[in-house]
């Protein structure tokens, strides 16, 4: 256990709130870290646009999302590698983010998921849904949830952080 950690990211400081816990655990257990971003396919309502224009727009939107995700994950992967961590980054696509993360977990041999949550409850969770809640309920591996604050600052590895 704790040999291979999954940290789902989406470009937000909220998601990055899981990184300090992941790096601490990786340091203690010499764990590999997989950073994952799930791209949701773009959906547009077709109006007066012709089918080919619509298809081209969807393709461009998807390609831009994928490029942004790769760039973001690459920068985080590079920062972590400079600190001595064993890190890989994966961009995948899926309608349901939780299902896509669980698929990455199975495909990559992940044994622990570390992710942040808004900490919403009640009506708010029901209205907005919760990827973290769905992962927690369906994962076959341990899930560590980090309650993040909306105003979380951008995460950057500390100068003194090193892998053990």
- Class derived from helix and strand content: alpha/beta
Instruction: Give the end-to-end Cα distance, rounded to a whole number of Å.
Output: 17 Å
Low-confidence parts lasting 5 or more residues at pLDDT below 50? Answer: 123-128, 158-164
Number of domains: 1
| Main CATH class | Alpha Beta
How are the strands of the largest sheet arranged?
A: 3-2-1-4-5
Could you state the CATH homologous superfamily? HUPs
Helix content: 40-55%
- What is the CATH topology descriptor? Rossmann fold
Radius of gyration (CA) equals: 17 Å
Order of helices and strands: EHHEHEHEHHE
Identify the overall geometry. Answer: globular
Whole-number mean pLDDT: 84
Q: Count of helical segments?
A: 6
Into which percentage range does the β-strand content fall?
15-25%
Main pleated-sheet profile: 5 strands, parallel
CATH architecture: 3-Layer(aba) Sandwich
Topology (SSEs and partners):
Elements: E1 4-8, H1 13-16, H2 19-29, E2 32-39, H3 51-82, E3 86-93, H4 97-108, E4 112-117, H5 122-128, H6 131-138, E5 143-147
Parallel strand pairs: 1-2, 1-4, 2-3, 4-5
What report would you give on this structure?
- This protein is α/β, with parallel strands linked by helices and 164 residues long.
- It has one domain: Rossmann fold, CATH 3.40.50.620.
- The chain contains six helices and five strands, in the order βααβαβαβααβ.
- It is globular.
- Mean pLDDT is 84; it is low at 123-128 and 158-164.
């Amino acid at each position: 256990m704790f040999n291979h950690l999954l940290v789902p990211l989406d470009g937000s400081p909220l998601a990055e709130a899981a990184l300090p816990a992941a790096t601490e655990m990786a340091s203690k257990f010499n764990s590999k870290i997989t950073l994952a971003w799930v791209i949701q396919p773009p959906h547009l309502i077709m109006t007066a646009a012709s089918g080919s224009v619509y298809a081209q727009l969807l393709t461009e939107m998807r390609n831009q999302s994928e490029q942004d995700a790769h760039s973001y994950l690459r920068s985080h992967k590079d920062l972590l590698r400079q600190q001595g961590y064993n890190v890989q980054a994966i961009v995948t696509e899926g309608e349901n983010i939780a299902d896509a993360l669980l698929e990455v977990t199975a495909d990559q041999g992940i044994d622990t998921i570390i992710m942040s949550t808004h900490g919403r409850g009640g009506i708010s969770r029901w209205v907005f849904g919760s990827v973290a809640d769905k992962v927690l309920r369906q994962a076959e591996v341990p899930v560590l949830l980090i309650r993040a604050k909306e105003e979380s600052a951008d995460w950057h590895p500390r100068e003194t952080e090193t892998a053990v």
